[in-house]
Amino acid sequence: MQVIGKTTCPYCGVGCGVDFPVNEWKEDIRPLENNKNKVCGDAHHPANFGRLCVKGSNLIDTLGLDGRLLHPVVKGKQASWDTALDTISTKIKQVVEEYGPDAFAFYLSGQILTEDYYVANKLAKGFIGTANVDTNSRLCMASAVVGYKRAFGTDTVPCCYEDLEQCDLLIMIGSNAAWTHPVLFQRISAAKQKRPEMKVVVIDPRETATCDIADLHLAITPGSDALIFNTLLVESERRGKLDYQFINDHTNGFKDTVQAARASSPSIENTAQEAGISVNELSQLVKWWCQTERSVSFYSQGVNQSSSGVDKANAIINCHLATGRIGREGMGPFSITGQPNAMGGREVGGLANQLAAHMDFTTPGAIDLVQQFWHAPKMATQNGLKAVDMFQAIEEGKVKVVWIMSTNPMVSLPDTNQVRRALEKCELVIVSDCQMNTDTAAMADVLLPATTWSEKDGTVTNSERRISRQRGLLPAPGEAKHDWWAMCEVAKRMGFMKAFNYASPNEIFIEHAALSAFENAGSTLRDFDIGGLSTLSKPEYDALSPIQWPVTPSQPQGTKRMFEDGLFFTPDRKARFIPITPKAPVERPSEQWPLVLNTGRLRDQWHTMTRTGKASILLNHSEQPYVEMSPSDAERLAVKDKTLVKLSSRVGEVLMRAKINEKQKSGNVFVPIHWTNQYNSANVISSLVPQVFDPLSGQPESKHACVNLEPVECTYYGYALALNPLELSAFDYWSDVTIPKGKRYEVAIKLPLDLSSLVHKAVYNKSEQSASSGDIECLTYTNPITNEHRFAFITKAGSESRLVAAFYFSPLPNLPDSRWLTSLFEREDPLNTSERIALLAGLPADVEDKGDIICSCFQVGSKQIEASIHKGCRSAEALGDSLKCGTNCGSCIPELKALIESTSTTSTTLDSEELAS
Ligand SMILES: Nc1nc2c(c(=O)[nH]1)N[C@H]1C(S)=C(S)[C@@H](COP(=O)(O)OP(=O)(O)OC[C@H]3O[C@@H](n4cnc5c(=O)[nH]c(N)nc54)[C@H](O)[C@@H]3O)O[C@H]1N2
Ligand SMILES: Nc1nc2c(c(=O)[nH]1)N[C@H]1C(S)=C(S)[C@@H](COP(=O)(O)OP(=O)(O)OC[C@H]3O[C@@H](n4cnc5c(=O)[nH]c(N)nc54)[C@H](O)[C@@H]3O)O[C@H]1N2
Ligand code: SF4
Ligand SMILES: [Mo]
C-alpha cells in the first residue's frame, strides 16, 4: 500500500498542496531513476484543489543528490559541524565586541520556513542587537509591503483566491501569472470560462502568455502604471462612481489625493499619450472600472520592482478605497507574492525595517514588549540595512560578517559585480545552501549544508495569508541540517543557551504564535495574530490543516477576507489615501544606452536554477538564455534570430542569443533571470542592472535598466554532447543544457579556430575517467559547401562501440535536433552500423524531429503540433485529443493557442538545416 505524505510546493506563492509518495523512498536511498511515482496535487488543499503546474509536477526529478552540499566546508576544506559552528560563533562574537552589533548581518530568503525566519530574527534583533536582517524579499515584495502599510497601517493582503474567481473585472498589472502563478491562473481561466462576462485586463509592456485570457491588453510604456490608476481615480470621480460613505467613514486624505491625480492625469487623452497606448484602449478600461463593482487589481513585479513601486501600489489602492471596493467578495487590491514563504517572513518581521510580528521599531512600546517576551539581553533599537545598502556596507567594510541563507545574491541582486566586490572584501561570508555549486557558494568562507524541501519541517504562508505545513518526509542526506538548527547552535555557542534551546520546529512555531498575540488587546493593535495556534501540541502541529490568519479566539477557523468591518490599523482606524505624483523610471534611454532592459521569469525555471536546472524536462521549454527583441529593433541593429549578441549597460556586459518576437515592443528588450555562471559562460543578467531602488521600500528597479545591444560575429554555432563534463574555456559562449544522462552544451565561437584541436582539447582535458585517446575513435564529417563540421568520438571496441562525445558546428545558428544523439547516452546496448553512420547526420532517417518542446508533461514538440494543426486541429482541446499536449498541467495552453493562430495564418517553412542523411 502506498503512503502519501502531505506537504506544500516549495516554489511560488500560490502555495499548492502536494501529495508525496513516501514509501517509495528508503533510508539514504533515492531511487530516482526507478521512481515512476510523480508527486500529485493535494485534492483537498484550498490553494490548488489537486492541480499542480509543470514545476510542481516535476519536483521529484529535482531531488537527486547530484550537486548537493553534504557536509560543512570551512575555507575550502571539508570540516565538521563543530568546527564550522565554532568558526562562525567565535568570529561573530569578535566583530560584535570590536565593532558593535551592526558589523554582523543576516541576508535571508522568502524560501526559508517561518520557523527558520523566527530564529534568525530573534537572534539578531534581540540577542546580537542588530536589525541587519534583510532578505531577498526586498527584491520582491518590499514595495507592496510599504504600499499596504501606508494605506492600511499594516502589511495585510485583504483578499483571498476566491475573490479572483468571483470578481467581474480582474486587472492584472505587471504580472505574468500564466507562467509565474500557473495554478492560480488556471483557476482564473476556469472561472472566466464559466462566466465569459468576467473581464480580464492585462497591463504589461510585453504581450505575455497571460494575455491569452485578456479581453484587453494595455502594452504601456514601462513605468507608467501610476498614471493609469490616477486616471481611474479621476474618472471615477468625474463619472460619479465614488463611494462617499466609505470615504467619509473609513478613510483620510481623499481631497489631496484626487487633486494630485487630477494634476498628473487631467484627461484620458493625456494619459493615453504618456503611457503609449490608444485612447480607445484606455477608455475601455475606464468604462469597465467605472461600471464594475466587483473589481480586483492583481499586481506583481511589474509594479513592485520599480524606483516608484510603493507609489504605484498606492495609486492602485487609492482607487479601491475611493470606490469602497475592499473587504468584500470579489474585490480588492491584491498583491500576489512570489516566493513560497515571503509572507511568513513578513509576519515574523524578518526585514531590516521591521521588529517582529507586525511591529516596527517606531511602534510605540514595541521594543519593550518584544524584549519582555524574548527576555532579550540586547535589543536592536532602530532599522537595519536593506539589501542593497547592506551589500554596499559590506564593500565599505562596515559589515564584516554576513550569513547568507537560501538565496543567491551573486545572481539576483542588482549589479552583481558590486556583490562580488563586497563578498571578496567581507571578513567572513557564511552561506547556508542545499547545493554545493552556486555563484554565491563560490564566494563563501564557510558553507553550511542545509536540508531542503521534502526534508525540512515547518510552515509557510501563501499569498492569501494561508499557513500550510511543509513536511519533512525524507531523511536528511549526508550531514545536512535544518537552517533553524544551525542558527540555534551558533546562538548557544554565543552564550544564549536558554532562548535557543528548541527541540523541534513546533516549539518555535508556538512561540512565534504566542508573540503575535502578546499584549495585542484582542487583535485590535496588530492584525497579525495567530494566538489561536499558540498551544498546538506536536501531533496537532504535525496534523495542522491549511489555515488563513488571523487565527484568534473569535476566529478560530481563520479569516478569509480582511477589513470587512472597514476598520484599519492606523491610530484612528481609518485607511489613508496617499497623493501620488507619478515618476518615470530613473534610468532614461540615451545615445549610449538606447534600449530599455526588462527582466523576468520563464515558465519552467525557478530563479537561479539550483533545483529546476536539475530536471532535464524543465529545460526543454527554454534551453539557454536569450534576449527577446522586436523585429524592427533587430532589423535596425542587423541582428538575426538565434545569433549571438552583446548586451551592455553602465555596470556590466553579457553575451546571449537573440530571440526575435513581434510581441516585444520596439525600444524594449526582455531577458529571463535564471541563468548563472554554473550553467552559462557569464550571462548573469543582473550584472547589467544598476543599484537603483525605491527610496521608500529599498526595492531595486530590476524591470528597467538602459542597455546597448550589438551583434557579435560568430564563425561557428554548435552543440557539444558528452558522457562527461567538457572543458569549454576556449569557447566564447556555452550554455549547459541538462539532459537525463551525460552533458549537452550549446556553444558559439567568434574567431576561426582549428575545430579539430578545439574539440580534442574539450574532450581530453577533463575526462580522465574516459578511456585514453587510443581507445577512442574520432569520426569527422565536413561539408565544404555549407562549411558544417561534425565530430563523433566513439569507443573503438568494434561492435561494442558507444558514443563518448559529439560536436556539430555550422556558420548558421540553426542546428539539427540533438534529441536522438542525447538519447544514446541513456542506452544500454552499443551502436549498430547504421547508427554509427547516423551519428554524423544527427538523426537516423526513421526518427522524428519533434521541434522545440512546447508541452513538457508529454514532451510534445512544435513540429508535431504544427503538423496536427495542418491536419485540422484548430483548438487547444483538439490538439489535446490528438497529441495529449496541454492535458496535464495546462501550462502550455497559451502557447498552443498562439501556435494555432500563427500556423493557421502562415505556411510552414521547411527547416533548411535538415540534413539528408
Ligand atoms: N516559473 C516561475 N514562476 C515563478 C518564479 C520563477 O522564478 N519561475 N518566481 C516567483 C517569484 S519569487 C516572483 S516574485 C513571481 C514574479 O511573478 P511576475 O511578477 O508575474 O513575473 P515577472 O516575469 O518577474 O514580471 C512580470 C511582468 O512585469 C512586466 N513589467 C515590466 N515592467 C513593467 C511596468 O513598468 N509595468 C507593468 N505593468 N509591467 C511591467 C514584465 O514585462 C513581466 O511580464 O514569480 C514567482 N513564480
Ligand atoms: N534582474 C532581476 N533580478 C531579480 C528579479 C528580477 O525579476 N529581475 N527578481 C527578484 C526576486 S522577485 C527574487 S524572489 C529573487 C530570487 O533570487 P534568489 O533568492 O537569489 O534565487 P534562488 O535561486 O531562489 O535562491 C535560493 C537558494 O537557496 C537554496 N536553497 C533551497 N532550499 C534551501 C533551504 O531549505 N535552505 C537553504 N539554506 N538553502 C536553500 C537554493 O539552492 C538557492 O541557491 O531574485 C530577484 N532578482
Ligand atoms: S503554481 Fe506551480 S510552482 Fe506555484 S505552488 Fe503551485 S505547483 Fe508550485
Ligand atoms: Mo520574488
From TrEMBL:
CDD domains in the record: MopB_CT_Nitrate-R-NapA-like (cd02791), MopB_Nitrate-R-NapA-like (cd02754)
A Gene Ontology term for the protein's cellular component: oxidoreductase complex
GO terms assigned for molecular function: 4 iron, 4 sulfur cluster binding; metal ion binding; molybdopterin cofactor binding; oxidoreductase activity
Protein keywords: 4Fe-4S, Iron, Iron-sulfur, Metal-binding, Molybdenum, Nitrate assimilation, Oxidoreductase
Pfam hit, one: Fer2_BFD
UniProt record similarity statement: Belongs to the prokaryotic molybdopterin-containing oxidoreductase family. NasA/NapA/NarB subfamily.
Domain 4Fe-4S Mo/W bis-MGD-type: from-to ranges: 2-67
Name the UniProt record assigns to this protein: Nitrate reductase
Example GO BP: cellular respiration
EC number: 1.7.99.4
PROSITE patterns: 4FE4S_MOW_BIS_MGD (PS51669), MOLYBDOPTERIN_PROK_2 (PS00490)
Cofactor annotation: [4Fe-4S] cluster; Mo-bis(molybdopterin guanine dinucleotide)
InterPro entries hit by this protein: Asp_de-COase-like_dom_sf, BFD-like_2Fe2S-bd_dom, BFD-like_2Fe2S-bd_dom_sf, CT_Nitrate-R-NapA-like, MoPterin_dinucl-bd_dom, Mopterin_OxRdtase, Mopterin_OxRdtase_4Fe-4S_dom, Mopterin_OxRdtase_prok_CS
UniProt superkingdom: Bacteria
